[in-house]
Amino acid sequence: xxxxxxxxxxxxxxxxxxxxxxxxxxxxxxxxxxxxxxxxxxxxxxxxxxxxxxxxxxxxxxxxxxxxxxxxxxxxxx
Length: 78
Description:
Blueprint: E1 11-16, E2 21-26, E3 29-34, E4 46-51, E5 63-68, E6 74-77
Antiparallel strand pairs: 1-4, 2-3, 2-5, 5-6
């Protein structure tokens, strides 16, 4: 993955359950987003998106995204 460098902001997005809190951690900074209520695809998933602060340093970056699933477990992607 390539991140947009400063002065621009990178946007990371994905699909998940509607109206759920998504947490994104990049190195030591944490961001949150609530996925939209309306479905974005034919299997009922909604879109979440997070705009990162401008990044001026070169990586590496560790990115972890977590969202609760409908069965009360957590889905984590690193």
